[in-house]
Every structure is written in C-alpha cells, then in structure tokens.
Amino acid sequence: MSATADHAEERTNPAARLGFQPGQVVQEIGYDEDVDQELRESIEEVIGSELVDEDYDDVADAAVLWFRDEDGDLTDALVDALGFLEEGGVILLLTPKTGRDGYVEPSDIGEAATTAGLSQTKSVSVGKDWNGTRLLTPKVAKPKK
Fold first, then answer.
1. DSSP type of residue 70
2. Nearest-CA neighbor of 62 among 88, 41, 94?
3. In the prediction, which pLDDT does 38 show?
4. Under 8 Å CB-to-CB from 143, ≥6 apart: which residues?
5. How far is the C-alpha of 136 from the C-alpha of 113, rounded, in Å?
6. Residue 79: phi, psi to the nearest 5?
7. Distance CA 99, CA 88 (A)
8. Residue 75 CA to its chain's centroid (Å)
9. Which residues lie below 8 Å from residue 132, measured CB to CB, with a gap of 6+?
10. How many Å apart are CA 80 and CA 57, to the nearest integer?
11. In the chain, what's the furthest Cα-to-Cα distance?
12. Which is nearest to 64 in space by CA: 48, 45, 77?
C-alpha cells in the first residue's frame, strides 16, 4: 500500500487513527449491548484477530475499556485494566458522548487517568455515541515495594 493510501486509511478507519497495529493482542473490558459494533470490527480488522475478553489470562498490548458513569469507579477500572497490559501498553477508554446515558465528565476522566498513573494523549469521536480517550501506561516500571 502506498503512503498516501496508509494516510487515507488513518483518516477513515477509527482503529488506525487510534494507533492500533496489526498483530496486537487487544483486550476488551466492559462489553455490553450498547457498544459500537463498527468500532469493534474496525479494531479487529486492523489487528487481524478478534478482541480477547476479560477472561483472557495473558498480557495484552492494548485494552479497550467501555465505561459508563454507572459502571462504578473509573480509577479502579483503569487500574484493573493496567494489570493485563504489557509495559508501555495503551488503554482506549470509551465513554458515552455528551447527552447520552452514562456520560462521563472529561474532568473525571483526566483525574482518574492521573490517579491511575496514565498519560492522556488524545481524545477523539469514535462513533455516533462514543468518545475515545487514548491513555498511555508509564514507560518505566515502578519499583516494587
């Protein structure tokens, strides 16, 4: 594929825009009937395999975390997701858009990410009902106590 075609795909394919790569193992957390199926299929198309579920018992390169306001504590959900990731992994936090059931305030996302030790890199619209926030894990492992 040409570089121009690669850039065109990044603009039209939300999974490519979000940085997913072929061969990655991506764990999906928080799946429910309200998730964006087109986004899920887009991610699977880019990585070349199905998303693994919450019962996956190995480390993943990235996590897709569907989170709604009523799902509990966002910081806890992010910390739990970190436990399944390779060092330097990425969490794509997906939350309902403004006005949708389960909307999460951007300030709550920022606070939870910081508390969980994550860096927020970008937020994008990833569908009719969902916003995505790309969160990076720390590059250096924290010393064990």
1. G
2. 88
3. 94
4. none
5. 9
6. -65, -40
7. 33
8. 14
9. 14, 18, 92, 93, 94, 123, 124, 125, 126
10. 13
11. 49
12. 77
Check: CB of residue 82 under 8 Å from CB of residue 91.
yes
Asked if 43 and 51 count as a contact pair (C-beta separation under 8 A), the reply is yes
| Dihedral angle of Cα 88, 35, 33, 65, to the nearest 10 degrees | 20
Roughly how many angstroms between the first and final C-alpha of the chain, as a whole number?
48
List the pLDDT tens digit at each of the 145 positions of the chain: 334 344 444 456 778 888 899 999 999 999 999 999 999 999 999 999 999 999 998 999 999 999 999 999 999 999 999 998 988 899 999 999 999 999 999 999 999 999 999 999 888 888 899 999 999 987 655 455 5
Q: Which of 61, 136, 140, 66 is CA-nearest to residue 100?
A: 66
pLDDT at residue 34 in the model: 95
DSSP-derived 3-state class of residue 88: strand
Distance between CA atoms of residues 82 and 85, nearest Å: 5
